[in-house]
Amino acid sequence: MEFRTIVNIEKPDFEIMPMEKMLFVGSCFADNIGRRFVDNKFNAIVNPYGVMYNPASILHTVERLVKDDREQGQFSPRVVFFTLGTNHIYRLKETGEIVDNCQKRPARLFQEEELSVDQCADYIMKAASLLQTSNPDVRIVLTVSPIRYAKYGYHISQLSKATLLLAAHKCITLTSHTPSAHNISHSSLYYFPAYEIVNDELRDYRFYRQDMIHPSDQAVGYIWERLVETCFSESARRWLSEWKPVNDALNHRPFNPDSEEYKAFMKKTHNRIAELKTLYPELHV
Can you spell out the DSSP letters for the chain? Predict the structure, then answer.
């Protein structure tokens, strides 16, 4: 007898490899998932210019990164996650520009607006197109953050999430039916249902933090497990199993760091790291 509904996740036509070059841009949920990749030694950059909640701000981050990459050749990710948090934006009245951070300036200086489905989709597609121009092999994963926005009121928060879900669906559909849309190939976009996993599969406040808004570490860990089983290559899953005991050893806090037992333990750990570096030359510890 089943007591919950399991979200079926379609497998993408790409696989995440060990030490993959990755970029995470979006809400604080992007931070939560992105940090898992960083902790597991993937070559991941997470919100390099701060948390970006709406599709317009996500585009701004991509524009800056692509510009820097063209000028300095620093980073060209193959897998990119866009985590959409809200369709609400803040426009500076004086200039009319959409700001990514109000920087604690008075609220009277800004005008709050809501992006439509079409506007959200357009910003996403422009960001995806820029990334593909920089790297034709890039794969972009769209997700909608399950974090609700209490300041809007929960009804308005749900309307915001619905707008983002429709925008993500439009982007996927558009590239499926019109592969040349925004010069984006069909295989470049993929939707991962993090929002649905929290709301349809977990569906219980025990999977939330004390504020009853943010998913708990357990919920994030479960989403990570679903992501691993769906999107990771066999070699990437093998890497996770090889790295975990080493990572646990590095994070161990000994009672007596000067003891011979602990010194021997750390020597064994560093020897294992050296072995892993021969197997994974891209590993940086």
Answer: ---SPPPP-PPPSS-BPTT-EEEEEESHHHHHHHHHHHHTT-EEEE-TTS---SHHHHHHHHHHHHHHHHHH-----SEEEEEE--SEEEEETTT-PEES--TT--GGGEEEEE--HHHHHHHHHHHHHHHHHH-TT-EEEEEE-----GGG-HHHHHHHHHHHHHHHHHHHHHHHH-TTGGG--GGGEEE--HHHIIIIII-SGGGB-TTSSSBPHHHHHHHHHHHHHHHB-HHHHHHHHHHHHHHHHHT---S-TTSHHHHHHHHHHHHHHHHHHHH-TT---
Q: What is the pLDDT of residues 234-280, one digit of tens each?
A: 999 999 999 999 999 999 888 888 898 988 999 999 999 999 999 99
Q: What is the chain's mean pLDDT, rounded?
A: 92
CA 258 to chain centre: 40
The rounded distance, in Å, linking the Cα atoms of 166 and 91 is 23
Q: How far apart are CA 140 and CA 129, in angstroms?
A: 10
* pTM of the shown model: 0.93
Task: Please say whether the beta carbons of 83 and 24 come within 8 A.
Answer: yes
